[in-house]
Give the backbone structure.
Amino acid sequence: MLEPWAWRHRAWKKRPVWWLWERRNLESAALLHATSEQEAQSFRDRGLNVPIAVIPNGVELPVDRKARSGGPPTEEKTLLFLSRIHPKKGLPMLLEAWAKVRPEGWRLLIAGPDEGGHRAELERQAATLAIGLGEEVVFSGPLTGEAKEEAYARSNLFILPTHSENFGIAVAEAMAHGLPVITTQGAPWKVMEEKGCGWWTPVSVEGIAQALEDATWRSPEALAAMGRRGRAVVEERFAWENIARDFVACYEWVLGRGPKPECVM
């Protein structure tokens, strides 16, 4: 809620709560937890000066998608969005960017639970943009369990065109499934550029369209190689045993039983 977009969204509700008691609650904490340096900076921008532990969310590493399913079918290429259907997620920008690029041989699969009737707004936008619903753009509704795993396995590319994320667990899950990712600078995923496993684009229609054009022109082999690099990043940075170790060290420090952990700023 302290991320810039969320802080502005329905501010008339949030500001009174912040000033009446929530700021005081957070200022009284012995330690705050941020899932990224970007989120920690949001804490500082709100004037919170207590110690902050920067520890990312953990991700389960699934069975390798190629070993499980033989990889996505080459005759149909799919760009997957799998998250909440909410204004924060930037789907109007994605549909506009898709209409600009119209990548040949690709479809856009939008999966996730509808919140506040936003899906109907997007379907009306798709009709206005003359994007073929059910052909180019598919809304599947929520996917869980085997259906969710199948969506990852049959996709070539993942996208989260978000306005704001403190972490963006959907990005990490897609990387764990071996998918290259397009996301925006509203999410703390500069590692996409650093490790060559995706695109980290400005929060704009133009930025998303440029990334879409670049990504959808790449060969399946090039995309698969990017996906493998992303999966390696997840193995290295988001393994549960490392995250648990950092949390234990933080609790020990707060209780006066150990040194200050490196993750605390």
